[in-house]
Design goal:
Number of strands: 6
CATH class: Alpha Beta
Order of helices and strands: EHEEEHEHEH
Number of domains: 1
Number of helices: 4
Structural class: alpha+beta
CATH superfamily: ph1033 like domains
Largest sheet: 6 strands, mixed
Helix content: 10-25%
Strand content: 25-35%
């Protein structure tokens, strides 16, 4: 099993609204690592921008394949052009949503950096012009444990 961090720009996709929706099936675009992302991998959803952080996690059920957005997901896209285009996507099942006890319903960078082993998550370093990032097994296990606290 591998761990991944997938980024989301809320100006394009309302991911926090999505995390409040009870539907468990989710899809996500994949721009890199298409050959490496497999069923049973775990993906952490990272909101970008000023109010950023991890807002949820899902288990990959179907490896990346070319498809348009599934109907239940379309309402979360802010522009129709983002869901009616055939792109590489994974299909997964939401397994964790950040508790409302977290400010903004997210594990913010300041919180995550409070754990020495998480200081070097890939989204904390350099210019991040990608959508999908590998997360080491030690980082992945630690983040999963934070959902259970």
């Amino acid at each position: 099993m591998n761990y991944w961090l997938f980024k989301c720009n809320e100006e394009m996709y309302r991911v926090r609204d999505r995390m409040e929706d009870p539907e468990h099936v989710i899809t996500w675009p994949v721009t890199r690592y298409k050959e490496e992302i497999k069923a049973e991998d775990i993906v952490f959803l990272w909101v970008t921008g000023k109010d950023r952080g991890i807002c949820g996690a899902f288990r990959v059920d179907q490896t990346p394949s070319e498809m348009v957005e599934i109907p239940k997901e379309q309402k979360f896209w802010t522009l129709k052009k983002h869901w009616n285009k055939k792109v590489s996507r994974v299909i997964g099942t939401i397994i964790h949503r950040v508790s409302p006890s977290f400010e903004g319903k997210m594990m913010k960078p300041e919180y995550l950096k409070g754990f020495p082993m998480l200081e070097d998550l890939p989204v904390f370093h350099g210019y991040q012009n990608h959508l999908n990032f590998k997360v080491s097994p030690k980082h992945g296990r630690k983040i999963l444990n934070l959902f259970c606290q």
